[in-house]
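Worked example 3 (structure in, sequence out).
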């Protein structure tokens, strides 16, 4: 085991206080970080010193773990282009695959640059089914924690870069000075980012002005802040384990998360204030203090069908559990997603034997035989037999749709059946309906028409089950 690194505020090299040479120190840090990681990695390399050290170290000690090297040109000028070119050239020299992209709309703020960069890294990771590895150091952690404190962050935010994450950060226990020593010894090529010495943005001012002043006024300040951050990260891991035990379900898209209502109602308001940010984070929603207070209130005052807006346009609603979920009510968090173009047609027409496997968030699975007689009424609403060779149309529900059922032979608006089936209003705009010979015959999971073709004993029926994919 390697000794714990010195406090981030202490700029002396670890190799001066231990028997480890810079190479042994970096190799040990890499091995410790990689030990629990399964699968390949995408290396996020900017062309700066720390990330170029990551590239060289991974290529030397763990080349088999590298799926590709990802570099992003922010489009902010010649330096950004030169840095991306350096990364690409060095990666190819090492025999590594390079993924390079240039922003078409250069951002004007740190937040915009970060969002564009992480969007690119996320897409790259998904393309290679790999986790992203970055070169963040102990100094980066210190700066991030202080910046979050300035913005009023609580314990959850103070964990910063050490919080539980799919991102791998091998250098988080090392200082920039330690990486710099190895870079000099190994003659690592890199480009110094002009923004590193700039005071134009908050991080630069924290790095060059605020932190030195605080360390001078309170020696050991950096050490104390990083110790608090480590405690916050440990606390967040405990919270994540607790949330996992609550039965939180996350949609395959990552844009929705739900949990049993009873799990939140059975704890205190203070407990809810801790759990809600962690639950929302599962859907990619960052909850601020105001949003947390609103959700604590919503927990105790809402009824089934209620909903509320939170940070960034996200929605939290209270709904009945779906057929595939444990019985009871659930809170569901939905991240805001870009609206579909009004000209995007979500309609399919063809013969009954050729239904598409998917329409929106619903799958259509062909059954070999008719459902058994022991099926429940709710299960039967998700299946239908369609006459072979007849024209069938699948499309999403529209507000004027009517259906003739046994209870309303003259016709009734589908929206009323939605209400009776407790289908949330937010889901209705994507809910499918099935027309046979241009007459609405079935609303999956909701109702079936009086003249629906799926009558027992009718020959030449092709049976299908509709399966929603909300979670």
């Amino acid at each position: 085991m390697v000794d714990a690194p010195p406090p981030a505020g202490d700029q002396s090299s670890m190799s001066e206080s231990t028997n480890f040479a810079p190479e042994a120190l970096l190799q040990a840090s890499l091995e410790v970080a990689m030990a629990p990681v399964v699968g390949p990695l995408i290396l996020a390399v900017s062309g700066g010193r720390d990330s170029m050290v990551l590239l060289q170290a991974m290529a030397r000690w763990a080349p088999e773990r590298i799926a590709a090297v990802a570099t992003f040109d922010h489009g902010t000028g010649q330096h950004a282009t030169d840095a991306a070119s350096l990364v690409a050239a060095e990666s190819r020299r090492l025999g590594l695959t390079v993924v390079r992209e240039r922003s078409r709309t250069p951002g004007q703020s740190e937040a915009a640059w970060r969002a564009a960069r992480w969007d690119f890294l996320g897409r790259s990771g998904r393309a290679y089914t790999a986790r992203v590895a970055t070169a963040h150091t102990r100094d980066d952690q210190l700066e991030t924690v202080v910046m979050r404190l300035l913005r009023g962050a609580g314990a959850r935010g103070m964990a910063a870069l050490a919080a539980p994450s799919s991102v791998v950060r091998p250098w988080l226990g090392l200082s920039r000075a330690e990486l710099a020593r190895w870079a000099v010894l190994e003659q690592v090529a890199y480009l110094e980012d002009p923004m590193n010495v700039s005071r134009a943005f908050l991080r630069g001012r924290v790095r060059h002005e605020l932190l030195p002043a605080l360390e001078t006024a309170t020696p050991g300040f950096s050490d104390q802040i990083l110790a608090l951050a480590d405690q916050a990260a440990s606390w967040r891991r405990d919270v994540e384990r607790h949330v996992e035990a609550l039965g939180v379900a996350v949609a395959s898209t990552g844009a929705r998360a739900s949990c049993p209502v009873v799990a939140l109602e059975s704890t205190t308001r203070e407990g809810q204030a801790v759990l809600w940010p962690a639950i929302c984070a599962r859907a990619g929603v960052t909850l601020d203090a105001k949003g947390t207070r609103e959700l604590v209130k919503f927990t105790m005052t809402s009824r089934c069908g209620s909903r509320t807006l939170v940070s960034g346009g996200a929605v939290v609603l209270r709904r009945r559990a779906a057929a595939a979920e444990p019985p009871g009510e659930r809170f569901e968090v939905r991240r805001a997603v870009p609206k579909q173009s009004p000209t995007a047609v979500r309609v399919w027409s063809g013969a009954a034997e050729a239904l598409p496997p998917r329409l929106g968030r619903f799958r259509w699975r062909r059954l070999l035989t008719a459902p058994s007689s022991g099926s429940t009424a709710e299960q039967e609403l998700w299946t239908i037999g369609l006459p072979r060779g007849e024209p069938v149309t699948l499309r999403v529900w529209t507000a004027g749709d009517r259906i003739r059922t046994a209870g309303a032979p003259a016709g009734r608006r589908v929206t009323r059946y939605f209400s009776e089936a407790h289908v949330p209003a937010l889901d209705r705009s994507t809910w499918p309906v099935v027309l046979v010979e241009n007459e609405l015959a079935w609303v999956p999971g909701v109702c079936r028409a009086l003249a629906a073709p799926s009558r027992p004993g009718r020959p030449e029926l092709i049976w299908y089950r509709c399966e929603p994919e909300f979670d």
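Notes: The first strand starts at residue 41 and ends at 44. Residues 1-18, 340-345 have pLDDT under 50 and may be disordered.
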